[in-house]
Amino acid sequence: MLSESMEVFIREHEEEALELLRTIARIPAPSNHEEKRAEFCSRWLKEQGAEGVYIDKALNVVWPAVIREKNGLEVYMAHTDVVFPDEEELPLKEEGDRIFCPGIGDDTACLVCLLLGAKYLAEAIREGRLEEVYPSDRPGLLFVCNSGEEGLGNLKGVRNICEDYAGRITAFCTFDSQLDKIVDQAVGSKRFKVTVRTKGGHSFNDFGRENAIERLAGIIGALYRIQIPKQGKTTFNVGQIQGGTSVNTIAQEAHMLYEFRSDRREHLDYMQDQFDKVIEQARAQGMEIETEVLGIRPCSGSIDPERQRTLLERACMAAAQVTGQRPQTGSGSTDCNIPMSLGIPSVCAGCYRGKGAHTREEYIEKSSISEGMKVVFGMIFG
Fold first, then answer.
1. Do residues 238 and 174 share a domain?
2. Does the model's pTM come out above 0.90?
């Protein structure tokens, strides 16, 4: 349950949270180019009185809020990047209880809820109330506005945090997605760029020469004939194809982006083996093929089941006090993949209500922001 001071803080700062949401949502932050949001979040935290805030080499905004020699360190984060490549201000509009903006739910709303949690703690520290809101028998506390969660960001932000604080992290929570969902199992993935090259030529004069697009299409067809394992969940996808020069040119080069995912490590190994076989068979036919690994997200490692269960129950209770029911739990691909692969108990909890994630029509319900703050406060301070 939240304390009275937390409830009062959330009520008094709901409008501030919404205004902060409107401001951050407009700031462009494509993966690997989160500089503008990182600078804003760093400045904002310092203005709230958070001391020791820094931006690391991965463009994470890090606040080591409470550092203690004993009891380890708990990490709480929300990612700054969005899936959209916009480099100019993102479009935002409001209709009734809804705020529309690309990336406003995933993950800007969660980021704002985390920032308000940091503000609450900063005020308590400044007023000498740290023991009241975060007792000395609790672990150290690290707030992170992290980079690189989406797409080809390849989880660069959380990777860097786990490297910089290696051996000290005892629990990890990222805020991402909606209020009724919690991820407690990691879906691993591998992503590739596959390029095919041929001699090419004129579509009429050189008719009959190998066409890179046609050859690539054959590889795609073979990949789509792979039989996936029946246990657990394993998927694959070709998400992008590019190539060729013109309608009357036999394509000299074509490439695709391909990924496979699974919630089981052995099935990732199986999909890797099947992918390698398709590529080698194509090379055996004389094709010039280049493969490049674009991203790897690991599955869960060996995590103490009791510690994981305890952390999951904390997250479920934090969400249930808002929604009135136990949230859905399951597997997903989130920032948790990295700490989970290292054996660190981890969960991903949501902070908003809305729809349209990863579309330009995405929206959140304004009335859910206070609920999201309650989840964050319940998880960190409850």
1. no
2. yes
- Expressed in percent and rounded to 5, the helix, strand and coil fractions of the chain are 40, 25, 35
The answer on 176 and 91 residing in a single domain is: yes
Element (H, E) at 131: helix 130-133
Please list the residues that pair with 73 across neighbouring strands: 140, 169
Going by their DSSP bridges, the two strands 98-100 and 188-197 should be labelled as: unpaired
CA 279 from centre of chain: 30
The H or E element containing residue 15 is helix 14-26
Q: Phi, psi at residue 312, to the nearest 5°? A: -60, -40
Judgement on whether residues 285 and 314 belong to the same structural domain of the protein: no
Beta-bridge partner residues of 201? 250
Q: What whole-number distance in Å separates Cα of residue 191 and Cα of residue 235? A: 12
- Asked if omega into 107 is within 30° of 0 (cis), the reply is yes
Tens digits of per-residue pLDDT, 331-357? 999 999 999 999 999 999 999 999 999
Q: How many domains does the chain have?
A: 2
Backbone angles phi, psi at 296, to 5 degrees: -135, 125
Q: Of 274, 297, 320, which residue is a domain's last?
A: 297
Give the relative orientation of helices 110-126 and 35-47 as an angle to the nearest 10 degrees: 30
